[in-house]
Design brief:
Number of helices: 1
Order of helices and strands: EEEEEEH
Helix content: 25-40%
Shape: globular
Oligomer: single chain
Radius of gyration: 16 Å
C-alpha cells in the first residue's frame, strides 16, 4: 500500500451497473485518473478510503486517502496522508485486510466441509 502524491484530489463518483464504486480524481494539474474504491474505514474518528487505479497499469498498489466532507454535504475531498498519519493508518488497514482474508479462509473451509 502506498501514499498518494502530495496534493489534494477533487473527485466525482461514477457508479457502474456492476456495483463497483468508480471515482475520478483530478490532480493539481487538472489531469483525470480513474480509481475503484475497494474499501472505506474509520480510524480515530476520521474516514479513509482505499483506491486502486483503473488505468490498466500493472502496478498492483492502491492508495489510502483521508476523506474530508465538503461543507455542502454533496461531495468530499480526498487528501493525501502525511508520513505520520500513514504510519498510524497502515496497521489499521492491514488488520482489516487480514480479517477479510481470515473470513475468506473460513468460507473456503465451510465449502469443503459441505462437499
Amino acid at each position: 500500500m502506498s501514499k498518494a502524491h502530495d496534493h489534494e484530489h477533487d473527485h466525482d463518483h461514477d457508479h457502474d451497473h456492476e456495483g463497483h464504486n468508480h471515482i475520478t480524481l483530478l490532480d493539481e494539474e487538472g489531469k483525470e485518473a480513474e480509481f475503484e474504491m475497494v474499501l472505506s474505514f474509520e480510524n480515530e474518528g476520521q474516514e479513509y478510503v482505499v483506491l486502486f487505479p483503473l488505468d490498466g497499469s500493472t502496478e498492483d498498489e492502491g492508495v489510502i486517502l483521508r476523506v474530508e466532507e465538503d461543507d455542502d454535504e454533496e461531495g468530499a475531498t480526498f487528501l493525501n496522508l502525511s508520513d505520520e498519519e500513514f504510519e498510524r493508518v497502515l496497521p489499521v488497514y492491514s488488520e482489516i485486510v487480514a480479517g477479510m482474508a481470515d473470513d475468506d479462509e473460513e468460507d473456503d473451509e465451510d465449502e469443503v466441509e459441505e462437499d
